[in-house]
Amino acid sequence: MTGAARIRSAEVLVASPSRNFVTLRITTEDGVVGLGDATLNGRELAVASYLRDHIAPLLAGLDAHRIEDTWQFLYRSAYWRRGPVTMSAIAAVDMALWDIKGRIAGLPVYQLLGGASREGALVYAHASGADLEDLGDSVRARLEEGYRAIRLQVAVPGMGAGYGISSGRASGGRYTYEPAKRAGLRVEEGWDTARYARHLPGVFEWARHEFGSEVMLLHDAHHRLTPTQAARLGRDLEPYDLFWLEDCTPVENPEVLRLVRQHTVTPIAIGEVLNSVWDFRTLISEQLIDYVRASVTHTGGITHLRRLLDFAAQYQIKSGSHGPTDISPVGMAAALHLDLAIHNFGIQEYMAHAPEVAEVFRTSYRYADGSMHPGDEPGLGVDYDDDAAARFAYSPAYLPAARLVDGTMHDW
Ligand code: CS2
Ligand code: MG
After folding, report:
1. Are residues 85 and 214 in the same domain?
2. What are the residue boundaries of the Mandelate racemase/muconate lactonizing enzyme C-terminal domain, all occurrences included (predicted)?
3. Residue 254 CB–ligand 1 contact under 6 Å
């Protein structure tokens, strides 16, 4: 029987190799190290403080093997429950403990979760454009890289760049889109839902004509529609067979999805801004969604996301983990281990990080032919380089807000 692995220290590491990341490093008395991702885009230091000031002092001396017990302790003893800051902090601890357990066992984390249920995790890439020509180049570049599932975002004529549009021409080289801006504190984008909803079906009609029926196409509406607008857009998109329509309405009121469901069979994905199984209760038990967008990083870690996905599995709802570049390589690795192990895996979002990120985080996950594998290193398979991290100091960056043409603040 394995003895206890007492926790010696928990350090919070904040670095900014091209963008900000918060990483928790837990070290046992025997010197085994585990890493957890605690990055909450635009609010990074709130989680860093939660971990440094409130969680790290509680961890010293605990047995790193007791993952479930530590999760329940951190969740219940805080008294004030849930929310993105708390659940990202708990997630980081949880990931680091799974990493430690894997390193001690000499096994990759997916083996500890029950072993592989598939050879690799299907991933979707991003393509976007200022117009259809630009979008076409972007889609062709992703197809050449072997992706079989692609998210399409395009600027609406007369409305500026808007959500999800890469600033450079996206053909050739790494695809980049980073909504958090260092340019200033209050960045705003203009928005007109009616214009967008009129424009989008034609974009997907064009895409099917241009790229055929085989490629899986996705779209993110980023919380901007009313229930009736969402129902109608879902219906208008049906001929183009989307893999999913994401975040069609703001998520605070899940019951509005009932109306959307009554009018469309376009698959619905929701939940990147939610962070617990309780937030998903209505969405799942009433089968109002097809895919859970929660991430390991913001949803209490591997332990809690697995619980949520097991619940979803009873309703034929699948995973679709959030994976833009604000999920660090540690969070991405944790997601991939879970993707490989669970039965109800759907798809994984993937956007490659900037080259500087690889200087700080050494990863063992790999991409090939539209799929990813977490690798077979013990634990999560990610190492952190402190010397490299010291070259990239934290620099504040904030997500934008959206404003309607008449000046009204809107959901971004
Ligand atoms: C997006 C994200 O990946 C997605 O689906 O909705 O890019 C989201 O905007 C960012 O995570 C915000 O930090
Ligand atoms: Mg999204």
Report:
1. no
2. 132-267
3. no
